[in-house]
Recover the amino acids of this structure.
């Protein structure tokens, strides 16, 4: 498992009974996490005077935040020299997956070594963590997400980091439709990054199902690779195993000079020195 443990502004302090207690800068949140199936006591009672907000799930689906203290509408945390706007969202999220720092570091290291212009395609690009990492390494990025709200949030983050917006193209569209258009236009990319959800809807209500659609998307993305690609990176929080994702990459790869790897990514829990599994990645590196 690949673990990120060098955050200054973020910590998972404790976990118990499907909940995790975290510090996001100066804000302390208690949120659900299905990977925490052990019992380390009632965290709400244990940290009752040190929690700013709790997300409660509803028995009918969804849930809501309950603030114990005044929490700002948004606030900023940092990872190294990267900055992110954090907000309490529906369905327990905050707009950032801190474990992705492992991939951001890789993106910056590999792209940063290049002495040529690198073009990156970031699909299902969310609030822009991988876009920021790519731009900080000197790449130009096409940032694609079907949610205008997420793209607007990514714009906030890119401006927060004082990056050159002439080097990013924002696209609000269904990913598969966009990829097919790029193929027809003959556009090519040196790096392709994607974080596909288990299920989703495109900008015009197109339905995405990772079990039905990921294989085809990976095949299509091969047609967008340049003559000298660096890597293709796939993140997943959908329940796929690293081995399954690696199999998909092997089956869809069309290049001879490819090295394919996969693994879990995780974050440390301060209270008990455990590592919390947070997702997986699969990657093709082109030698």
């Amino acid at each position: 498992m690949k673990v990120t443990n060098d955050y200054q502004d973020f910590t998972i302090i404790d976990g118990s009974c499907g909940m995790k207690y975290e510090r996001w800068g100066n804000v302390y949140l208690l949120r659900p996490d299905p990977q925490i199936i052990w019992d380390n006591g009632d965290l709400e009672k244990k940290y009752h005077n040190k929690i700013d907000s709790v997300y409660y799930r509803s028995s009918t689906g969804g849930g809501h935040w309950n603030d114990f203290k005044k929490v700002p509408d948004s606030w900023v945390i940092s990872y190294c020299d990267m900055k992110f706007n954090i907000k309490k969202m529906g369905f327990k999220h905050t707009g950032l997956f801190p474990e992705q720092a492992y991939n951001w570091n890789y993106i910056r290291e590999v792209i940063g070594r290049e002495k040529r212009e690198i073009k990156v395609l970031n699909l299902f690009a969310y609030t822009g963590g991988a876009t920021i990492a790519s731009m900080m390494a000197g790449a130009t990025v096409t940032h694609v997400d079907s949610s205008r709200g997420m793209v607007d949030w990514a714009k906030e983050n890119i401006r927060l980091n004082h990056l050159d917006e002439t080097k990013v193209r924002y696209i609000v569209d269904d990913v598969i439709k966009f990829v097919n258009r790029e193929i027809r236009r003959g556009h090519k990319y040196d790096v392709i990054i994607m974080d596909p959800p288990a299920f989703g809807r495109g900008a015009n209500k197109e339905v995405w199902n990772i079990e039905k659609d990921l294989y085809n998307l990976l095949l299509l993305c091969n047609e967008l690779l340049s003559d000298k690609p660096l890597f293709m990176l796939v993140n997943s929080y959908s329940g796929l195993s690293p081995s399954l994702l690696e199999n998909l990459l092997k089956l869809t790869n069309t290049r001879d000079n490819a090295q394919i790897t996969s693994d879990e990514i995780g974050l440390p829990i301060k209270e008990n020195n455990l590592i919390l599994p947070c997702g997986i990645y699969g990657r093709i590196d082109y030698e």
About this structure: The first strand starts at residue 2 and ends at 3. The CA atoms of residues 132 and 197 lie 20 Å apart.
